[in-house]
């Protein structure tokens, strides 16, 4: 059994946390616990993933077109919702 600890945040942060928890159907405590876990886990990146990012960056530096920021934001906002589709299927 764990002991609960009170942590104070400003009103705006509390509102954001409560809204996000409600969207996900979890408690604020569960949301914070998940966020804390994500931050503490080591990130493993395969060398092939790094090589692919390097290839893509070189294309951008060479002038290949990119996706407008607004399109990416709109797509990211669908994550965790019924509207989500993989990037290629958007």
What layout of secondary structure does this protein have?
Elements: H1 11-24, H2 28-40, H3 47-61, H4 69-76
Helix pairs in contact: 1-2
Helix content, binned percent: 55-70%
> What series of H and E elements makes up the topology?
HHHH
Return the domain count: 2
The total of helices stands at: 4
- Low-confidence spans: none
Q: Could you walk me through the main structural features you see in this protein, from its secondary elements to its overall organization?
A:
This protein has 90 residues and is mainly alpha-helical. It has 2 domains: 11-40; 47-89, no CATH class. It has 4 helices and no strands. The longest helix has 15 residues, at 47-61. The mean pLDDT is 91.
Question: In short, what is this structure?
Answer:
With 90 residues, this protein is an all-alpha fold. The radius of gyration is 19 Å and the shape is extended. Helices cover 56% and strands 0% of the residues.
Question: Keywords for this structure?
Answer:
single chain, 90 residues, mainly alpha, 2 domains, 4 helices, 56% helix, extended
């Amino acid at each position: 059994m764990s002991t609960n600890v009170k942590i104070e945040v400003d009103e705006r942060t509390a509102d954001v946390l409560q809204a996000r928890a409600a969207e996900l159907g979890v408690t604020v405590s569960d949301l914070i616990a998940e966020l804390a876990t994500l931050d503490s886990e080591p990130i493993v990146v395969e060398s092939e993933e790094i090589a692919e990012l390097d290839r893509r960056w070189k294309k951008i530096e060479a002038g290949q077109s990119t996706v407008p920021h607004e399109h990416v934001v709109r797509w990211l906002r669908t994550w965790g919702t019924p509207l989500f589709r993989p990037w290629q299927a958007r």
